[in-house]
Amino acid sequence: MKQIVVIGAGVNGLCVAVQLAERYFNLANVTLISEEISPNTTGDGSAGLWGPYYCGKTPDHKLVKWSSETHVFFHELWMHGLAGKIGVCLQPCMRLTTDPNGYPEPAWKEIVFGCQKMTEPELKRLSNEHGRCYTGGYHFATFTCEPSGLLPYLFNRFIAVGVALGHKNWLEMKRCYQFEDRWHVSVLHGYTKLF
Ligand SMILES: Cc1cc2nc3c(=O)[nH]c(=O)nc-3n(C[C@H](O)[C@H](O)[C@H](O)COP(=O)(O)OP(=O)(O)OC[C@H]3O[C@@H](n4cnc5c(N)ncnc54)[C@H](O)[C@@H]3O)c2cc1C
Prior knowledge:
With 195 residues, the protein is an alpha/beta fold.
């Protein structure tokens, strides 16, 4: 059996851990190590709205692939009657800009529902309402997912097939047990900004 360790039980670590533990159930033992678990992760304080944002230099094809998988995941939860339990709901959204160059057509336009370019009268009305000078934008419908429902759901899904060690600091464990050398484990960092 392969030994895989995922570090960090935020939304990223949990998603990775669930995917690996379910997909490689008979081939690998997956252990999740985390200093904090829900309700003390970043995601617990977030809005849970789907939408690529601050994506830096991530190429469009990767952005579309990854964000589309998340959208499909929310859609499936919603279709399978889990909306109430996990807090998935469809939300009308607008993205607007005051940039003189307007809002370029989003690469994720086909992922969301009914994405339409805002018309001049709509931009004028919103500009009046908000005291801004909007130059472009899109409206569409997408999902929000309540982190207080989603994170425990993912955690429970993981512990059905893997092992979770809470309140453990990976750096200390590594120092004390020379984890990677002794266990020959593959280590995946499921959290951001550790080093
Ligand atoms: C106010 C706010 C609103 C937001 N709204 C949205 C939104 O609407 N939509 C959206 O997509 N995003 C939103 N975000 C961003 C989103 O919440 C984060 O990008 C996301 O939660 C990051 O998850 P993560 O798993 O990478 O990190 P975290 O949730 O920070 O998880 C890191 C995990 O690693 C563990 N860890 C760290 N160091 C160690 C160590 N040495 N040993 C062991 N464990 C360790 C921590 O204990 C924690 O469990 C929002 C963020 C904020 C703050």
